[in-house]
Amino acid sequence: MSHLLELHDLEVKFALRTGDIIAIDGVDLTLDKGETLGLVGESGAGKSVTGFSIINLISKPGYISKGKIIFDGEVISSFSDEKMREIRGNKISMIFQDPMMTLNPVFTIGTQMIETLLAHKNISKSEATKIALEKLQKVQIPSPETRLDQYPHELSGGMRQRIIIAIALLTDPQIIIADEPTTALDVTIQAEIMDLLQELCETDHMSLILITHDLAVVSQVTEEIAVMYAGKIIESGATNEVISNPRHPYTKGLINSIPGSIKPGEKLQQIPGMMPTLSKIPPGCAFNPRCLEKIGICETNIPEPKKTDVGTMASCHLI
Amino acid sequence: MSTPILTIDNVVKHFDITGGFLDQIRFKNGKFKLEKTTVKAVNNVSLSINQGETLSVVGESGCGKSTLARVVMGLYAPNSGQILYSGKRIDNLSHKEMLPFRKKMQMIFQDPYASLNPRKTVQRTLEEPLRFHNPKMSSKKIYDKIEEIMEQVGVDPAWAKRFPHEFSGGQRQRISIARGLILDPELIVADEPVSALDVSIQAQILNLLMETGKKRRLTYLFITHDLSVVQHISTNVAVMYLGNLCELADSGTLFENPRHPYTKALLSAIPKIGETSEKHIKLKGEVPTPIHLPSGCVFHDRCVHANERCVNQIPELLTLDNGTCVACHAVEENRVIS
Fold it and tell me: pTM here?
């Protein structure tokens, strides 16, 4: 069976004056119809760049230097800008972190929604308004008619994020890429937004790529998970398997460092040190200077992804 | 019982945001009137912390938790109410009288990128409070102290001459903590000290805070929205909603047996790792603005248990059998099944 979206050995480089740095280093990912995938990692792991590269939103000096992205049987990584516009925001939509930054403060919600529709579809303005209203209802916004005439500043953070989701839904996309959609929101609102996204995926058979640093959110929402570290996917597989039986020392450390996994007051397990900057990635396994279980080979050889005993994939020499 | 190290007694803090004269003019019932707009950030909050304890104040954005921290530190003067430090009132002191207390109370801020002066080296950042509070201290002593404190927080003392931009977020937060500790304070007010950090770094900083807390017998007032962090480090937890205290209990009791309907909803919304999402409690509507507070219980328009009394009467903080303090009519009347 062919997948809805495939990333093959994707490599993204940023050309800097001091030389190229590799932000994404050979990422392989697949996403099926209706599947939810969580992309987890700390800041600088390359999870957002992966998300951006799928819809070709990498801006200079960044560029895709190797590999390909296949969507619905077509290699979209080699599409021209013009052709890409038929995919981006149409078949693949993206939701960003900060709802105040993504909405234009000087246009009403209605204007922004209708503009999106008219850009992608050959329909009249009244038809577009109808679709906009329908989508606002779908994201459970109370009194959608009045919202169309409101400006972003008149709405709360949670409401704005709902509007953003409604805009992403306008063209009935097949994939939604959500980049930290709830990081700027409070827990109670986060729970509501996550419920909404999950519901939408189930009812509309939409696929979701959830990019976040929050393992707990991913473990509740997604079926599949990919953990990134220094531009590579170091562990992936079914979410509940990876979370309950992590095999890569980094994933283990990440899970153990969340307060709540051990008794209150006890020392949290910590991962020593910090993620290397992309220009100074250590030789061998990128995680080796912080790894508590490292062996000699870790410092020289880059580990290949291997199947673990629980059916997940992990890139570690210990497996 | 000994005197608590810090007592917050019925503190009220309102901010006037009206602006100029013209902004105050309102036209009502055929008359022009001057009206002020105030943000009611903190309303009648009372709390106390004993020596060596960690009290966490939790709540969502806009609930007044940071304002409360700043009132405690004397950065804002309360509109009414008192702050007592070891039994002595400190909120009405003059700048000069306040100085000895400033030495004993230090604050750590959320964003280590904004809270360190980018034009000062770590050494200058750390020596400033020492020189200010101990003008007679010799330079050698000061530098020894800086070295000692940097070692304690896990930053190589050899880097003392570096500027903040040369450090990562986690290291900067360690430097902020060092600045907080350098005067050997008794009370640390930490306003979201780990919210801006990555999970693996967050664990390092929490461990550091807990270790130094134990070693120095520090008392913490911890302000955060992250409930899993709260559960891990606190002795007592206070839950705030819209400037009001709704529940106060020791950490174990609060997480096992939350009583206030808002606390219940808040706790049910925390995503827990490895658990498939259970149905969390959905709240009606959104947090109202603190400019127009709802009448009676501020939570009534979002609460499923609300009745007539909740709309009209502000609930008092009640102490229940298990020691939990809760401000809720429904709990008082046993309308909430715990």
Answer: 0.84
